[in-house]
Amino acid sequence: MFSFKIGNILIDSDIVFQWIIILVLAIGAYLLTRNLKGKLTKKEVVLEMLYDTVAGLVRGNIGESYMSYVPFIGSLMIYLLILNLVGLLGIMPPTKDLNVAIGLACISIVVIHFTAIKRNGVGGYLHGYTQPFVLMLPLNIMERIVFPVSLSLRLFGNMLAATLIIELLYDALNHVAWFAQLGIPIFAHAYFDVFDGTIQMIVFTMLTMVNIKMTAEH
């Protein structure tokens, strides 16, 4: 862990790692999508399979009318998955930082409410808070406030717990013998980084998708 300041702004390692991941993803996306010729090359087949997987997920969960969100959902899935998996490289997953989890939740919330306003207009969007009847207004407002809180805390809590457990495991094994750290942690990383990290990505993405539809059609 490290940190430094740019003026009065504190930049920590989680932010730096996110910048690096964004840069790598941007370069990778450029290299993979340039000079596409529509031929059945291995690269294009893999890219099409990836797109079809995300498109099928969007179509199956929120419907054909939301297919324009495939790029957003796909980008969110890839970015969040990589953030969760960097623990395999010996780097603390940025998602174990509450600020990072809140930032990701804010992105989802902006997309969710922008979609609702775009599809229903400002009047229709505000009218949705009174559905199914006016007395539901306080509960509907509370629901919209609680959702981003629960979305960010769920991601943060699970990733922080996984990180702490792995750290405790390494510390315990270090007291046994240094070579004990070479093999046993593989199983912990497989569960807490790969399995749990993938599950948290799926949960975050699915909740975002479902709420895009529910809020727009409420």
TrEMBL record:
Function: Key component of the proton channel; it plays a direct role in the translocation of protons across the membrane.
Keyword vocabulary terms for this entry: ATP synthesis, Cell membrane, CF(0), Hydrogen ion transport, Ion transport, Membrane, Transmembrane, Transmembrane helix, Transport
Protein family (similarity comment): Belongs to the ATPase A chain family.
Name of protein: ATP synthase subunit a
GO molecular function, one term: proton-transporting ATP synthase activity, rotational mechanism
Short name of one Pfam family: ATP-synt_A
One GO BP annotation of this record: proton motive force-driven plasma membrane ATP synthesis
Residue ranges crossing the lipid bilayer per the database entry: 15-33, 69-92, 98-117, 145-170, 190-212
PROSITE patterns membership: ATPASE_A (PS00449)
NCBIfam families per the UniProt record, alphabetical: PRK05815.3-2
InterPro entries: ATP_syn_F0_a_bact/chloroplast, ATP_synth_F0_asu, ATP_synth_F0_asu_AS, F0_ATP_A_sf
GO CC field: plasma membrane; proton-transporting ATP synthase complex
Membrane topology category: Multi-pass membrane protein
Organism, as annotated: Clostridium tarantellae
Cell compartments where the protein resides: Cell membrane; Membrane
Keyword Transmembrane: yes
